[in-house]
Amino acid sequence: MREPRHYTKALAACQTVVTIIYVTIGIVVYYYCGSYVASPALGSAGKLIKQIAYGISLPGLFASATICTHLASKHFFVRMLRGSRHLVANTLVHWGTWIGCVLGVVVIAYIVASAIPNFDSLISFIGALLGTLQGFQPSGCMWLYDNWSRGRGQRSHRWTLGVCWSVFVVVCGTFLMVAGTYGSVVGIIDSFKINGGSGVWSCADNSNSV
Q1: Where are the domains of the chain?
Q2: With contact defined as beta carbons under 8 Å apart, do 162 and 143 qualify?
Q3: Is the pTM of this model over 0.85?
Q4: TM segments (predicted)?
Q5: How far is CA 129 from the centre of its chain?
Q6: pLDDT of 94 strictly over 90
């Protein structure tokens, strides 16, 4: 997008492509797997398809892990060396602190992910509780905040449609948050009832395909 005035077109194009991809994959997977679909859904695919898909996704996973690690490490690094010359100087303290921050973040993340039982279910719970709360409700509330008083005096069809859509987004986001959180909690409880929760420091297969 070279021109700011093309923002709406670019946003619509990107969102359309993403929506089509997500809907297509969801329809195909649930059509062929139904209620027996594995979690993650890739576990329902054949061996060759899984190998190809995981091979394609690995670079993205490595890039995502690198970005998250760098972001957290940079936060601690800047706070520790703020106000000193070592923050931007090519010194032993600079590199020692940076490497220490990176290793510390990686080790702590590994311990948290491996030592907490049912960590995947915990991630689902956090995503259901906070994901929609940060992605759905704020957009509707911000539109209402920006446009409620502006269009209330002279209500146009566009303003009314915007209000209805914003309220719909907030209501849907709230429903997804409540229902998703409830489902995640039930899943965690059921998991502990069946096998006492997933084991810590386990190398067991988690693809749900075997």
Answers
A1: 11-44, 47-115, 117-196
A2: yes
A3: no
A4: 12-32, 52-72, 92-116, 122-145, 165-189
A5: 12
A6: yes
